[in-house]
Amino acid sequence: MPDIHETLRTVWGYDAFRPRQEEIVRAVLAGRDTLALLPTGGGKSLCFQVPALAMRKLCLVVSPLIALMKDQTERLRKLGVRAASITSGMDQHEVENTLNSAGLGKLDFLYVSPERLLTSIFQARLPGLPLGLIAVDEAHCISQWGYDFRPPYLKIAEVREKHPDVPVLALTASATAMVADDIMLRLGFKAPHLVRGPFQRPELALWISRGEDRTGRLLRIARHTQGSGIIYLRQRKGTVRIAGLLKQHGISAAAYHAGLSPEERDAVQQQWMRGEIRFVAATNAFGMGIDKADVRTVVHMEPPPDLESYYQEAGRAGRDGTAAFAFLLAHESDEVALRDRFAASFPTLAEVRRVYQAFADQHRIALGSGEFETYDLDLRTIADRTALSPATVNHCLKALELDGGIALSEAVRTPSRVGIRATSADVYDIRVRDKRLGPVLEALQRMYGGLFEEPAIIDEERISRHLNLSVNQVIGLLRDLHRREVVFYRPRNDKPTVTLLVARRDASKLTLDKEALELRKERARQRLEAMIHFTFGADQCRERTLLGYFGEYTSGPCGHCDVCTSRTDHHKSVVAESSPAPLPTSNGILEHRWATDINDR
Q1: Same domain for 182 and 210?
Q2: Measured distance CA(416)–CA(587) in Å, rounded
Q3: Strands (E), 203-306
């Protein structure tokens, strides 16, 4: 068997695996289909990356999150690992080149979205890929009982049919017992095999505080805890307001949301990672793929829609094993708000048809065309066209996605890319004879190697300086070369996108799978009720309640949540004016009880 510890040391510089990682890696190397349930921060990516490199075969990674695919691909490349991803928005030539590289054994990892599995080009190349492992990230998406079911995930079973001897490793941070069984069934496991990491987080104190003045409670938390933190809110304007409030009180903070430019988001993230700002007030996307071990505090300003989201977001605190706090600041009105948002998340068929028609009109997509084409998404424009709210438009698009008609991708900054389509003789002829286009072709070949073999990320500003032209002139020349099919040119983009998975249909005749929608609604209702019970109705240890939801049971109460502390005589507040620094730990176990009374101070 390959030396997995040597691989771990050589590539990542780690001397040992985290809990359960080695068991998962060895199961994969033994050819066993495996479902790995590891909590947020449990190191899921290493569970497929280590065995894939050790066995020296291609690992196909199926993931629905483009941002994480991009992040992992870049990290692997920096480590000297051959990795590539195929995402929506890529030119067919780029896709073909990437699949060629994979088929010729030039890649160690190929990341694809689940929607990519549906395409004819991928299906045609699939039998020839030298696969050694299939890794399915966010595996709960394959289950109709999961909290983000995606129909294209069901196609993974067809991948397995083409490579029946290749093991599959499914990974997720949150799955109930029912979802776990469904994952293994739908992925065609030869035998059930579940490895569950320790979901219990003894260093993380879960605390629910109810009261009127949420901002006042937040300020007391910020003043009397140390280290960095994340504050989660549902709306963009809330992130700006809370960041401004903290700064007014001398606490460094910044807002993070999709409305910021990519440069602004990157700047906020990097400042926070370096410890230059303490708190990021963010919408729920912040934190995915960010490996910051010393987050001391996570605050939810209102209840998330389900316990899966709450556990993932709260679990971003205390990854270094030192005492950390997860606060949920609730108000009695939140239950009504949660139920209202639940009702609004299921639009009428008429509304879905209006959104579909407006989207097609905006991009001038003809009937019967557009299959597997990707288009920019502007919720505000569609909202204006339909006289619906952006939230309703988003819910309509989600209904179309869950019906299998489209694929939504979050906003991710995609750099400009260029590859050469023409023959070397034609390129040489243009360079010699065309005084307008020749210089930019020559600059591309001098500045970026291997453009005939695979596309390269380019910087138009750098090219403009080299040619002494404006950036707009360079972009115009590149577009002209693209139209003439000399190169393909994909300008940078930072907008969310929609990919049509079936050719554009007649909106007036559009139908949705009623049974599937009812099932989705019932699943969402069950998750909603569990979240409401956890926030307002649970009278036992928060940790026990949360772990029990995911099928893990503890021998006793945690001793440091708000419920446990309220039953003791030791009320030591971390937010009182005389509060000490955050509590120390010993082997990850809190050394003494603590209590927080932040409601009425």
Answers
A1: no
A2: 47
A3: 204-210, 228-232, 253-256, 279-282, 295-300
